[in-house]
Design brief:
Blueprint (H helix, E strand, L loop, with lengths): L2 E7 L5 H14 L4 E5 L13 E2 L6 H8 L3 H14 L1 H9 L5 E5 L4 H5 L3 H10 L4 E8 H4 L2 H18 L3 E6 L6 H12 L1 H9 L10 H10 L5 E3 L8 H12 L15
Bound molecules: guanosine-5'-triphosphate and magnesium ion.
Length: 261
């Protein structure tokens, strides 16, 4: 059975880029994987998907035909994916592969927080093991209150999808090493994050420091791996974290002889 790696995160956080780079990384390590584009609204992809839901439902065509706006068309498209789910699942599972990388739609509030998105994922994954990568754009996370809201979003995504998550802090090539260390320290230390939020002029109006600390104490805290989809930095660590979740730390090879490269 393959392992499913579901790439999640807010619009523009780097899901499509990371899916592509991860596929290249796995291939270069003699691990077979396929790429599934689960975004019915995407126009251009930097990779050639093995399975592409636009062959079942094309949100852009739906917009043209129905006059729906982008969000309405995406909602309708994801609902329509569910109607085709058996065929989509069959196509994905027809590949004998180690990993299935699933690139999800940009508007994650439509995908993860409505009824049908999680049902689509659940149906595709079936009984296989899965891990979600929740992408946080590091250039956004340098602002402490942004980081807090990203961590809250990761937690609520976990509640919705009920698959284990790893946070991937993307675009670290755009941060200098001091800024990156500061973000990682805030993620590691809830007291520091709440202190930094308290010192933000605008955020102080909504959050007080004790409140933030107590929220952070209760939050699910997922492992965070810094990566760059441009330089490839961090992918050894990301792969190791994925392995820890899906295969309990053991390196994994399927029973099938693996015809990689
Ligand atoms: N510098 C840098 N740019 C990145 C990185 N990852 C993604 N980008 C850029 O960020 C933009 C968005 O990347 P995508 O991979 O399309 O992000 P996405 O989450 O799939 O976007 P949507 O599907 O539209 O929500 C693109 O211009 C990418 O080239 C990274 O690690 N470093
Ligand atoms: Mg994308």
């Amino acid at each position: 059975m393959p392992y499913f790696i579901v790439v999640l995160g807010t619009a523009g956080s780097g899901k499509t880029s990371l899916s592509s780079v991860l596929h290249t990384y796995l291939t270069s390590h003699q691990l077979d994987s396929i790429l599934v584009n689960l975004d019915p609204a995407v126009e251009d992809l930097p990779y050639e998907p093995d399975v592409d839901v636009r062959e079942y439902v094309d949100a852009r065509e739906l917009m043209r035909k129905t006059g729906l706006g982008p969000n309405g068309a995406l909602i309708a498209s994801i609902d329509m994916l569910l109607m085709n789910i058996e065929d989509i699942k069959e196509e994905i599972w027809s590949y004998k592969t180690n990993y299935v990388i699933v690139d999800t739609p940009g508007q994650m509030e439509i995908f993860a927080f409505r009824q049908t998105g999680p049902l689509v994922l659940k149906a595709i994954i079936g009984d296989a093991r899965s891990v979600g990568l929740f992408l946080i754009d590091s250039t956004y996370a340098i602002q402490p209150s942004n980081l807090l809201s990203a961590l809250l979003l990761a937690s609520s995504t976990y509640v919705r999808l009920k698959i284990p998550l790893i946070n991937a802090l993307t675009k670290i090539d755009l941060l200098d090493s001091n800024a990156l260390s500061r973000v990682l320290e805030m993620i590691d230390d809830p007291d520091q994050l709440s202190a930094e939020i308290a010192s933000e002029r605008d955020a102080r109006l909504i959050w007080d420091q004790d409140e933030v600390s107590s929220i952070l104490d209760k939050l699910m805290v997922f492992e965070t791996i810094p990566v760059s989809n441009v330089s490839g930095e961090g992918f050894d660590d990301l792969y190791a974290a994925i392995q820890r979740v899906v295969a309990g730390g053991e390196d994994y090879y399927t029973e099938e002889p693996n015809p990689v490269i």
